[in-house]
Amino acid sequence: MNFKQQIAQNIGLKIEGVNFEDMITTVQDSNFGDYCIPCFPFAKILRKSPVAVAEDIQNSILPNNVIEKTQIVNGYLNFYLNKQYVIESVLKEAKVHDFYFDNQYAGQTVCFDYSSVNLAKYMHIGHLSTTIIGESIARMCEAKGYNVVRINYIGDYGTPFGKMVYAYLTWGNEEELNARGVDYLQELYVEFCKRAEDDESYEEQARYYFKKIEEKDPQIYPIYQKFIDISKLEAEELLNKLDVHFDSWKGESAYTQELPRVVDILEQKHLLSESNGAKVVDLSEFNLGVCLIQKSDGTSLYATRDIAAAIDRYNHYKFNKMMYVTAVQQKLHFEQFFKVLELLGYEFSKDLKHVYYGMFSLPSGKIASRKGKQAVLRDLMEHSFNKVYKIVENRQFAIETKESVASKIAMSALKYNALKNERIKDSVFDIENCFSFDGDTSAYMQYCYARISSILRKAGKIDMDKVDLSCLTGTEVYALAVAINNYKEKLSLALEQCEPSILCKYALDLCKLFNKFYSTQKVISDDMQDMHAKIYLLNIIKTTLKNLFKLICVDAIEEM
Ligand code: ARG
C-alpha cells in the first residue's frame, strides 16, 4: 500500500509544478501522526506563511477513508491515518502480493564478483564478509527481478603457487597431500616462507616453478592443477555449508594469456607509457596514480587480468550491472581499472560498481588461527556448530534433526554477524553472545519464527479468504501492519545503498514487534473469529520474515 500516494490523491488543492506525493515524509515520533508535509517550500511560491499554506491544504482535503485527522504544527501539516483502514488494507494486500518476487528489473542481468578467494590458502573469517555481503545483495537483486550471475573469481594464479610446488617437490610427499589436502598445502607454504627468510635462493626457485606453471610444463603443471583442485573442493565445501553457490568459477589464471590483447588495445588508444621497464596507464590527471599493466619481466598484473575479465564478462553475459565485493583496501585498484575501461571507450564501465566493506575480525585470542593472524573459517564454523549443538542437545524436535537445527543456528549466526553492521564500519565478531536467543542475534529472530510456526501448527489450517480482519485492533497490530507495509521500501533502499544491514535491522524490529504483540494479546482462544484473524496476521508475519531471512542469509527454522 502506498499511503503517501493515497494522501496526495485526497488533497484538493493544486499548486503548479508540485506533486504532493513527493513532499510527504514519514513522521518519526508517532505522537505527531504518521506522515507530514513541510509547508515551507510552498510559502514562497504562494506568498503566504507556511501555516497559512498548511491551512489551505487542510481545508482542501476530500472525504476519504485513509486520513483520520490532520494537525498543523509549526508549518508542518501532520496526517494521522485511520488505523483500522491501514491494518485491513495492508493485510489484505499482503495476502495476495508475492512478497519475495518483484519484477521491476525483469530482463536485466547483474553479475556479482564475490568470495573470490585466493586458492591454496585457508579461507578465513574475512572471507565471510565478501561471501555473505555479496550473496545478500545478489539475493536482493533476484528479489527485484534481476537475472543474477554469481562469479567466484578465484585467485588461482601467482608466485605462491610456485612456492608451493617447489616446497612440495623438495620436501613434500604425495601421501600426505592426498590425506590432508589444504592443511598440508598451507603447511608447505608456511614452511617455505620460514626457510626463505634466510636463503634468497628460495624466491628464485619459486619464480622458476611459477614460470613452469605458466608454460604449462607437462611435469609441473599437473601438480599445480592438483593443488587447485584440492583447494577448490575445500572452498566449495565451505561455501555449500554457507548455502552460497556460484554459476562460474572462472578465475584469474583464465586471463593471463589476455595480456598482449590488453596491451594492444591500450596502445591503440595511446594510453600506455613506460616506467622503469614496466607498462602503465598514467591516471594522475584523475588523481588515481598509475595503473600497472605489465611488469618489467613481461608478466601481467592484477589490474590487467581484471580488465580482461570485465571485457570477457560483458561479451559473455551482456550485463546491465556488475558488482565487485571486496575489502575497502582494494578501493584504488577498482577505481583505477574502471577508469582505464572508461578511457578505452567501454560504455559498460559506468555500470561497474565496487562494493567495499571494513574489517571483520574475532576478538584476539578467540579460536586462534592455526597459522597466521586470522581465524580459519573452517575452524570457526566447527567451533560454532559444536557450541550450538551443546545448547540444543537436550531439546526434542519433531520436524528437524538436532544436527540441522544446530547447523542452521550456527551458520546463520556467522552470516548475520557479517551483515548486521554498516558494511563500511570495522566490526568485531561477538562470538560469546551471537548464539544467544535474546538480543540482536539471528538466533533470537529464528526463535521468533519458530514460535510463530509452532502457533500456526497448533491452530491448524484456516481459510484465509473468510477471515474478518476487523477484529485486529490495537497499537501492536497497527505497528506490525505498518512494518509489513515497509517491506518493499526497505528492500529498495537496501539495494540502492548495497547495505544489507538495513534489512537486518528491519527484520529484527519486526521480530520485536511480533513479541510485543504476542506478549499482550492471546492468539489461541475460544473466540474463533478473533483467533482466525490473528492466525491470518501470523501467517503474513511468517511470510514476511521468511523472505527477509532469505535476503539476509538467515535460515528459517520451524522449531527450536
Ligand atoms: N582474490 C582477490 C583477493 O583475495 C579478490 C578478487 C576480487 N575480485 C576481482 N575481480 N578483483 O584479494
Protein model, in words:
- By secondary structure, the protein is an alpha/beta fold.
- The protein has helices at residues 3-9, 20-23, 40-46, 50-60, 83-96, 125-143, 159-171, 174-197, 201-214, 221-241, 259-268, 302-317, 331-343, 377-392, 402-419, 442-459, 475-485, 487-496, 500-520, 528-551, and strands at 25-26, 35-38, 67-73, 76-81, 109-113, 147-151, 272-275, 278-282, 290-294, 321-327, 352-357, 360-361, 427-428.
- The strands form four sheets. A four-stranded antiparallel β-sheet has the order 1-2-4-3. A four-stranded parallel β-sheet has the order 6-5-10-11, with helices on both faces. Strands 7-8-9 form a three-stranded antiparallel β-sheet.
- Strand 3 and strand 4 (76-81) form a beta hairpin.
- Helix 14 crosses helix 15 (402-419), helix 17 (475-485) runs antiparallel to helix 19 (500-520) and helix 18 runs antiparallel to helix 19 (500-520).
- The longest helix is centred in the first third of the chain and has 24 residues, at 174-197.
- The radius of gyration is 29 Å and the shape is globular.
- The relative contact order is 0.10.
- The model has no long low-confidence stretch (mean pLDDT 94).
- The chain binds arginine.
Topology (SSEs and partners):
Blueprint: H1 3-9, H2 20-23, E1 25-26, E2 35-38, H3 40-46, H4 50-60, E3 67-73, E4 76-81, H5 83-96, E5 109-113, H6 125-143, E6 147-151, H7 159-171, H8 174-197, H9 201-214, H10 221-241, H11 259-268, E7 272-275, E8 278-282, E9 290-294, H12 302-317, E10 321-327, H13 331-343, E11 352-357, E12 360-361, H14 377-392, H15 402-419, E13 427-428, H16 442-459, H17 475-485, H18 487-496, H19 500-520, H20 528-551
Parallel strand pairs: 5-6, 5-10, 10-11, 12-13
Antiparallel strand pairs: 1-2, 2-4, 3-4, 7-8, 8-9
Helix pairs in contact: 3-4, 5-17, 6-15, 7-8, 7-9, 12-13, 14-15, 16-19, 16-20, 17-19, 18-19, 19-20
The protein binds arginine.
Residues 113, 116-118, 153, 155, 306, 324, 326 line the site of arginine.
